[in-house]
Design a protein that fits this description.
Number of strands: 14
Strand content: 15-25%
Helix content: 40-55%
Strand order of the largest sheet: 1-2-10-7-8-9
Largest sheet: 6 strands, mixed
Length: about 425
């Protein structure tokens, strides 16, 4: 593998990866990863105005496409490299994919993670055979330590994205999609470091030169967007799409994508949340924030995709269950099915009862009630009641609010940011 990497480094980036490389990777990993289905979604097609085809990479054993590139890189190692072992810096899907296939192949795998990594991610990586080392407070700290251990222990570093062998493995996603549904004429693919789209784009362009290639990044982490569009948008924040929250894109991947991509679009947090909720409600499939980025882009950029046959990769399904519950409840709030009303009342017997009667008359279900008497700017005889409620739709809550105001109540609807 070292000779291969040295040879590739002498070539221009666009020549370092070819369709033949992706086909070779497909042959190596065949039968060792799940050949996931590509299915047409009638409902999402109706919603978006495009013909939507979903690639269910969340059905991999570790619930993410990252297995493909990790396995291809492992299979290209020499016997000596396999015996010594591999190392990577990752707190996500690459860690699990590399650990799972490394253990299966008898290759020792060390994963360096920041000390701030959630315990569940550490446990998931260890459960599939990875040896986790915690170092530093940030990913950059963990990455630097991994490169240090690489030299000290004679290990082979497997980069999560900036590696032609890894990108070739990820490109097998496009091979399968276009074999199963050759009429796909556009791909909307998430970009973090760029490995997935580099592999998929290389394969897709060679198989179907006229295919549209659109990269998708979280608006909080527009690193590849900035690099290729020569922008300086700020990069950082607490995004739902942590799988593509990369501050520095790959050098190899960005050089390839500069020649391949038609465009890159950014999606905000509300769009990501909505897409996660839609996929669960409509397709009955769980995806993480990054896994929903492609659908979020299509919904947010209707004119770009309308009338096209669009392939979307559901890149992963590793989302914390409590976070998923929050996303679903917030989506209900945005759609108007959940509401919170802040109502000013007089502090006297029966005041709340009269309000509750109005909720009953409009058939709006009360979920939670909070009283506030002390920390308020109201007079001593006043209070604020906040009532969280559930309705069939936004119109039902709007009718309730109008009715309460007609009866003289001061009512404010609490909105999501």
């Amino acid at each position: 593998m070292e000779n291969l990497v040295h040879k590739l480094a002498q070539q221009p980036a666009h020549a370092q990866l070819t369709l033949a490389d992706v086909h070779a990777a497909a042959g190596r990993i065949m039968g060792k990863v799940v050949r996931t289905p590509t299915l047409h979604s009638q409902t999402l097609s109706r919603i978006t105005g495009a013909e939507i085809y979903l690639k269910f990479e969340n059905l991999q054993f570790t619930a993410a496409y990252k297995e493909r590139g990790a396995l291809n890189a492992l299979l290209l190692l020499s016997e000596e490299q396999r015996a010594r072992g591999v190392i990577a810096a990752s707190a996500g899907n690459h860690a699990q994919g590399l650990s799972y296939h490394g253990t299966r192949l008898g290759v020792p795998v060390t994963i360096v993670m920041p000390r701030t990594t959630p315990a569940v991610k550490i446990m998931q990586t260890e459960s599939v055979g990875g040896n986790v080392v915690l170092e530093g407070e940030t990913f950059d700290d963990a990455y630097a330590h991994a490169r240090l251990l690489e030299v000290e222990r004679g290990l082979t570093f497997v980069h999560p994205f900036d590696d032609p062998a890894v990108a070739a493995g990820q490109g097998t996603v496009a091979l399968e999609m276009l074999t199963d549904v050759p009429e796909i004429d556009m791909l909307a693919v998430p970009i973090g470091g760029g490995g997935l789209l580099t592999g998929m784009g290389t394969a897709a362009r060679a198989m179907k030169p006229g295919i549209g290639l659109v990269g998708v990044q979280a608006a909080l982490f527009p690193s590849m967007y900035d690099k290729l569009k020569h922008q300086t948008l700020p990069c950082g924040g607490d995004t739902l799409a942590e799988g593509i929250a990369v501050k520095e894109p790959g050098k190899f991947t960005s050089a390839v994508l500069e020649t391949l991509l038609d465009d890159i679009v950014l999606v905000d947090e509300a769009a990501l949340e909505s897409a996660v909720a839609l996929l669960l409600q409509i397709e009955k499939t769980v995806v993480e924030g990054a896994g929903a980025a492609g659908l979020a882009a299509v919904i947010a950029n209707r004119r770009m995709f309308e009338g096209r046959k669009v392939g979307i990769v559901l890149t992963g399904g590793n989302i914390d269950t409590r976070l998923l519950a929050n996303v679903l409840l917030r989506d209900l709030a945005r759609s108007g099915r959940l509401g919170r009303l802040r109502i000013v009342l007089q502090d006297r017997p029966g005041a709340l009862y009269s309000v509750v009667e109005e909720f009953n008359r409009h058939q709006v279900n009360i979920l939670e009630v909070w009283h506030q008497r002390i920390f308020t700017s109201l007079p001593a005889k006043g209070l604020t009641a906040e009532i969280e409620c559930e309705a069939r739709n936004r119109e039902q809550i709007d009718l309730l609010v109008r009715s309460l105001r007609d009866r003289g109540y001061d009512v404010t609807q609490v909105e999501l940011a």
